[in-house]
């Protein structure tokens, strides 16, 4: 259901900013967002934007990650015009810019005094650009790292290498797993942006790849099978209950509530884990780089960013909101009003120079910045590949291909089929995609 008219309800998992002033402003902009904690914070603070811009009214449509991807993609691709601001990522942005679906935001940024587009972390800025211009701007950026209960590790006498291996992680999960606590939490929920995000980094570092240089599918290769079997065995033997339906949100809750000993996932999770209002493990979490096997660097690169569809009827007002939500001052506002642990991480270099944030993020801030800066989307695998992207393939077909493959592997996590059976079906899906690229040569 979409927002339509003054009496409509926001389709939301949290709240709706501006609900009390519908019809009182000159322009209403509709913002499609993912319902993560940082986005919910933005809604809490949105009244400040409306006070500063009384001629602009805000309507939020917030959805779960999988739902948001589907709805935003469908609306933007068809020029539906339902949304003035869309929350997308470095997967969609360059492709949609190439198709002409998005406004060039570098032009807006250059005309906005003090916005400082050059302050964005270079790897993120490049990943959100097409032909040298940014077509979305980062609200927050992330890589991936290992989060672990350092108190439990100390009690058990477990130490990790400076760059831990997956073998070390599996051994620690086995040692710490008990009836009362899972050894590790890993995503098992189907979705190219859910299960496949961490799993793809495992495939990469184990030496696997989706396609070879000639677009021949490689999902039944020994390297991929070993990586997927390792991941499935680890989460089935020492992972959280109901792993096949667990995604980012479920794992965040379980670690924050002290129900798991480790979690490998997004660096953005610190906003939940280090928040005294929502976490029982504040100060008890240690952070380590993304675990490795063969490839030395395995952290992903991702950004939830804001763009303006070409079909928006209010692009200038939309930019006003986007620039407010991604500006240096917004970061300070979050820190001062909600707490420095709630600051959207990994977008601007200047964030890591704020004294209060440096103090609050001492355990994880430098590691987050290093992981984002060191991510290798242009060389994600051990062997050469014809695609870019660490935890996704930057091709249009990946939304469907990745989701279908993830469904097969999630079924293996649920015990409904074996890993070889899952990969045999996944290979067939990939072969169809690969064939289209070979034909285009």
UniProtKB/TrEMBL annotation:
Residues spanning the membrane: none
Classification lineage: Bacteria, Bacillati, Actinomycetota, Actinomycetes, Mycobacteriales
Listed Gene3D superfamilies: Periplasmic binding protein-like II
SUPFAM superfamilies: Periplasmic binding protein-like II
Domain of life, per lineage: Bacteria
Name of the protein this chain belongs to: Sugar ABC transporter substrate-binding protein
Organism field: Rhodococcus jostii
Keywords, comma-separated and alphabetical: Signal
Signal peptide bounds: 1-19
UniProt-listed InterPro entries: Bact_solute-bd_prot1, SBP
């Amino acid at each position: 259901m979409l927002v339509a008219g003054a009496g409509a309800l926001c389709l939301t998992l949290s709240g709706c900013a501006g609900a009390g002033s519908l019809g009182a402003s000159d322009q209403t902009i509709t913002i499609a967002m993912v319902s993560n904690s940082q986005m919910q914070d933005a809604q809490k603070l949105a009244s400040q934007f409306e006070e500063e811009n009384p001629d602009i009214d805000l309507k939020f449509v917030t959805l779960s990650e999988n739902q948001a991807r589907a709805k935003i993609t469908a609306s933007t691709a068809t020029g539906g015009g339902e949304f003035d601001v869309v929350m997308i990522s470095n997967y969609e942005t360059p492709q949609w810019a190439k198709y002409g679906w998005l406004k060039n935001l570098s032009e807006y940024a250059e005309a906005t005094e003090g916005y400082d587009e050059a302050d964005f972390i270079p790897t993120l800025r490049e990943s959100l650009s097409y032909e040298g211009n940014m077509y979305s701007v980062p609200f927050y950026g992330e890589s991936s790292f290992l989060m672990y209960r350092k108190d439990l590790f100390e009690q058990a006498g477990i130490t990790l290498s400076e760059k831990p291996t997956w073998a070390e992680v599996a051994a620690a999960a086995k040692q710490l797993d008990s009836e009362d606590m899972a050894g590790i939490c890993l995503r098992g929920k189907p979705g190219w942006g859910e299960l496949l995000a961490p799993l793809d980094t495992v495939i990469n570092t184990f030496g696997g790849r989706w396609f070879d240089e000639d677009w021949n599918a490689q999902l039944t290769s020994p390297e991929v099978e070993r990586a997927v079997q390792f991941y499935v065995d680890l989460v089935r033997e020492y992972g959280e209950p109901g792993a096949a339906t667990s995604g980012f949100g479920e794992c965040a809750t379980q670690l924050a509530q002290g129900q798991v000993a480790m979690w490998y996932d997004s660096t953005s999770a610190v906003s939940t884990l280090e928040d005294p209002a929502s976490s029982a493990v504040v100060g008890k979490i240690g952070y380590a780089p993304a675990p490795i096997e063969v490839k030395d660097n395995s952290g992903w690169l991702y950004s939830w960013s804001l763009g303006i569809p070409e079909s928006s009827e209010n692009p200038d007002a939309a930019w006003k909101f986007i620039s407010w939500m991604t500006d240096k001052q917004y970061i300070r506002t979050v820190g001062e009003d909600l707490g420095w642990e709630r600051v959207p991480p990994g977008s601007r270099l200047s964030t890591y120079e704020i004294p209060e944030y440096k103090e609050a993020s001492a355990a994880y801030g430098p590691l987050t910045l290093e992981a984002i800066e060191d991510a290798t989307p242009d060389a994600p695998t051990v062997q050469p590949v014809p695609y870019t992207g660490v935890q996704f393939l930057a091709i249009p077909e990946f939304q469907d291909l990745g989701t279908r493959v993830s469904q097969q592997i999630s079924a293996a996590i649920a015990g409904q089929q074996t890993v070889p059976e899952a990969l045999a079906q996944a290979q067939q899906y990939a072969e169809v995609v690969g064939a289209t690229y070979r034909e285009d040569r």
